[in-house]
Amino acid sequence: MEKKRVYTFGNGKAEGEAGMKNLLGGKGANLAEMNLIGVPVPPGFTITTEVCQEYYTLGRDQVVELLRDEVNEAIKNIEGLMKSKFGDTENPLLVSVRSGARASMPGMMDTILNLGLNDDVVAGIVRKTGNERFAWDSYRRFVQMYGDVVLGMKPTNKEDIDPFEEIIEKVKEENGVHLDNELSVENLKDLVSRFKAAVKAQTGKDFPFSAEEQLWGAIMSVFDSWMNERAILYRRMEGIPSEWGTAVNVQAMVFGNMGDTSATGVCFSRDAGNGEDLFNGEYLINAQGEDVVAGIRTPQQITKIGSQRWAERAGISEEERAAKYPSMEEVMPEIYKELDMLQQKLEDHYRDMQDMEFTVQEGKLWFLQTRNGKRTGAAMVKIAMDLLRQGVIKEEEALMRIEPNKLDELLHPVFDKTALLRARVLTKGLPASPGAATGQIVFFADDAAQWKEDGKRVVMVRVETSPEDLAGMSAAEGILTARGGMTSHAAVVARGMGKCCVSGAGALNIDYKARTVEIDGTLFKEGDYISINGSTGEIYEGEVETKAAEMDQDFADLMALSDKYAKLKVRTNADTPHDAMMARSFGAVGIGLCRTEHMFFEGEKIKAMREMILSETTEGRVRALAKILPYQQEDFKGIFRAMNGFPVNVRLLDPPLHEFVPHDLKGQEEMAQMMGVDVKVIQKRVEDLMEHNPMLGHRGCRLGNTYPEITEMQTRAILGACLELKKEGVVCLPEIMVPLTGILHEFKQQEEVIRSTAAKLFEEKGDSVEFQVGTMIEVPRAALTADRIASSAEFFSFGTNDLTQMTFGYSRDDIASFLPIYLEKKILKVDPFQVLDQKGVGQLVRMATENGRKARPNLKCGICGEHGGEPSSVKFCHQVGLNYVSCSPFRVPIARLAAAQAVIEEGK
Prior knowledge:
The chain is about 45% helix and about 15% strand. By secondary structure, it is α/β, with parallel strands linked by helices. Helix 21 crosses helix 36 and helix 23 packs antiparallel against helix 24 (about 620-640). The longest helix has 25 residues, at about 620-640. The model has no long low-confidence stretch (mean pLDDT about 90).
């Protein structure tokens, strides 16, 4: 039997359902499901995601032949249900053609509305409806969309506006009108004529007349859009595999632009910005769906409360609001009631916040889409915890609803209240996506990406954003648009990314060619600083100071729930008391890596360190180290005090000594003067310390075994700090870690120095503290001989950064020269320094843990590389049976949640 490639839906029946998302895409599966549960949906059909894969394998012509019969049958099915005929001039059927991948990709692929129109059909619609304006408005929209998507009518350079928009602006100017919906029928006819002439001039071809030719052009363009630049970038950002492909949804058109009893809108069953359990959305009377999401006209609020809140923010009186900007609830009360009832039905059915698109055609409501809505990190947490408290979902599901990496957004800084009082407010827009952003103004996406690469913080300022701006939006600290509402492209994508966004700031007058923006009389050039508040919509002049975010009760409840399920403990990498305290506030239960080298660089410490390096005798080195000892002991006291009662893993000195000496002449002359020696002595020592491959050179335990006096001093500093704190009642749990062990005897010699130094210190002080000695496993040989090393080491900490370098043979500092090509060619799926390589490096971790515990059953094992805060790596650590992961303070909540999800996934 021939494979089924087309699935129909309509009139309460469907060949698909919600569980078929992989085959029908999210949109197609949900259109089928809405039919089955009694939601009014225009009839249509879905071409499967498998056909997209065939398209890229077999090519256009073969795919058209494979689809032709099924598509023709499916069109007949729509014709029967709509009692109209595709391509007919007297009773025409018009369709929309939309993409629909299994994962939501808002605005990343292409949509075409009103397909099936030509000069003859538009005349037929005028005769049938008696509504000449509607017919020609639909036609000009179709020519514009089809010309852009299928025929490739794009701006020739980034400073230019869309060629169709340029024509529209010209016609509006010639006729003295401001809005698209003020254009007369004659103006619309003129637009269609000019649009077609522009198509002919740019492409050399006439605009297609045949409805069938238009349909196949649109279907193939949707498949093409799966591999457009913005879709590829979005997939890379969201981790969506390219082999998934997109489905194509063809649906009978319903029209929101048929007059004052017609409308279009986008709505959410809960607030996508802050998670509030409040139905909200935006609509436009006498418009089509693209008008709302593209931000061409700033829409009005659906609910009365939403409208009143909007008016309050905009400084508009209740009288003016009710007269000029009424809500749908007030203007179309019956339709609103039905919409409210159906949005609740959909949320109850899917048990999650829904993002819905709808059209009202002459008083009848139709749903065009529903999907689980994109949301900010804060909304994600609130919605999950509210649904849990409301009894809609269970604890395990609440935890699995949270994307660990999106918790990062909740920890982003907010504006300092005192700084806000001093800040000059320039104007106000809509608070489209919460957060605080300060940066330099930039107008174009490619510039935003470049400036970010150059280390600048930018705020991207646009009239409105489009999917082509994705790379710039990703690079920017925040996004500011002159047009568009709370459901515009900028707002939806920014919320999905967790970016601060203010939209619809009408006071912005942007000149792309001059690269300036005027805001209520103040002119700003590209590169000037601006600040935006995505929670209030306020825009401020210059830079405004920020402060750390404060966690709310929903976040605290989520973390408590995570700890209830997690088995893996989460520690932090911290070198200062400040970092240690911050990590504790985020729930860290110890320090998994305290790097001591950072303690040598300040003031007198670096002077004594350099004195030690210059010394040619053991006695000289011991004298210099004695000067460092009290400073280092004080540093450790601060960290152990901050971690009172929790373990602190201190790594002994790791980097090569050349990192502590200056390599420029000025620095060497200053060092020579400070040390009271000739500059040539310094230069000779610097030259002696130079290595061809320092990463594999004289560092880690090799340094400690060559100069055991360094290990002695550090042991005294660590344990001396603990003895002093013990008198204050502070509980210290020190773990002394030997770095870069590759051979058991390397470790044993360092262990001997540590234990003998500790014994002397305890005898001198007449007191002692419990401590452990273990090693960092970052050399593959150490992982392979873990059973031998565990005969002496009391714990293993996997340094997965160096272990990745040595296993792959990639230098972390140089991988950037080939990594983008490796990712593009799919040689690597991800950067192995960001996501743990489970098949290679991971197997070394697994083997070392299992073999180490054969020699020492109670061997404590953890990881302390950057992978310790990456969710999939954390879950792997759980599977391997590690005791803890350790990560930077801001990644601690992410790791705690991932550790809980690992337990739930294991139980499924």
